[in-house]
Amino acid sequence: MRKKPQWVQISLVAVLVFPIVYLTRETRYWYLDKVGRWHLEGSNGIWDLYIPTLFLLLQFGCYFAYVNFRENERKLKIEGELRQAALKSELAAIKAQLNPHFLYNVFNTINASLPAGSEDTRELVSGLSDLFRYQLRASRTELVPLREEMEFVTGYLDLEYARFGDRLRVSIDVPQELLERKVPPMLLQPLVENSIKHGLASLVEGGEISISIFEKGDKIHFRVADTGVGAKDKQAMFGAGVGLTNTKLRLEKMYGSVLEILDNAPQGLIVQFSL
């Protein structure tokens, strides 16, 4: 049963104490008269009302004071725990920003120290540095233009292409008019990475990644499809990889969106969501 607010409890006590004391006195007086015992009479009988009423009000006053004391202690404890949690979250956020910033500077140092004739390696290091720079920026903002998010994804795919070569084929379909729409950062890349790592990497012939974004109704729909090995237990995928699991939780908790995993034809998977 839901506990009544304290002001309701105090009001009930204030309203009921006197009638209860009065009925108790009258019942007691009736019994004493019946057995022939003495009790206060006339105006003196007021003391049998005043003293019990005062005693009960003092008791309830002490009770409510104790309840308020315990409630304030509980609130102070919760506030202290929340302050500690907020401080830990703030420190974690600072660390999350420092790590990409540190790596970004290290990559620039490595790039500058590469000997002449290492242009391919230099471009890879530069591309990786750009990815970390975007990640650092994304950690400080809630929304970015879709154009920047797609540049980040294509930069990541360029690095993967250097690894897979012709085994990796990419198809991107994003209407020009959507490129300036604001979207949450770092949502697509974990899905693309998951498709490559768990879908295509084990195939000798490789496969294709298709990214399509389109507007329907009042929502923007995101779709990442691959022609990889697929998965029988799709729910188990959310516990296998950090990126996919975190993206699912992020969509659910922050944006109220569901991350769906479907079978692709003739093989592979489709991962999609809408905002």
Give the strand content. 5-15%
Give the CATH class of the largest domain: Alpha Beta
**Extended strand count:** 7
CATH homologous superfamily designation of the largest domain? Histidine kinase-like ATPase, C-terminal domain
DSSP summary: helix tally: 7
Low-confidence stretches: none
Provide the CATH architecture of the largest domain: 2-Layer Sandwich
Helix and strand sequence: HHHEHEEHEEHHEE
Report, as a whole number of angstroms, the end-to-end distance: 40 Å
How many discrete domains? 2
Question: How is the largest sheet built, in terms of strand order?
Answer: 2-4-5-7-6
CATH topology of the largest domain: Heat Shock Protein 90
Rounded average pLDDT = 80
The chain-level structural class is alpha+beta
Report the major sheet: 5 strands, mixed
Molecular shape: elongated
Radius of gyration: 35 Å
User: What is the helix content?
Assistant: 55-70%
Describe how the helices and strands are arranged.
Blueprint: H1 6-35, H2 47-113, H3 119-138, E1 144-145, H4 146-164, E2 168-173, E3 182-183, H5 188-200, E4 207-216, E5 219-226, H6 237-240, H7 242-255, E6 260-263, E7 269-274
Walk me through the structure:
This protein has helices at residues 6-35, 47-113, 119-138, 146-164, 188-200, 237-240, 242-255; strands spanning 144-145, 168-173, 182-183, 207-216, 219-226, 260-263, 269-274. 61% of the residues lie in helices and 14% in strands. It is built from 7 helices and 7 strands, in the order αααβαββαββααββ. The strands form 2 sheets. It has a 5-stranded mixed beta sheet, covered by helices on one side. Strands 1-3 form a two-stranded antiparallel sheet. Helix 1 (6-35) runs antiparallel to helix 2 (47-113) and helix 2 (47-113) runs antiparallel to helix 3. With 275 residues, it is α+β, with helices and mostly antiparallel strands. The protein has 2 domains: 6-87; 141-274, Heat Shock Protein 90 (2-Layer Sandwich), CATH 3.30.565.
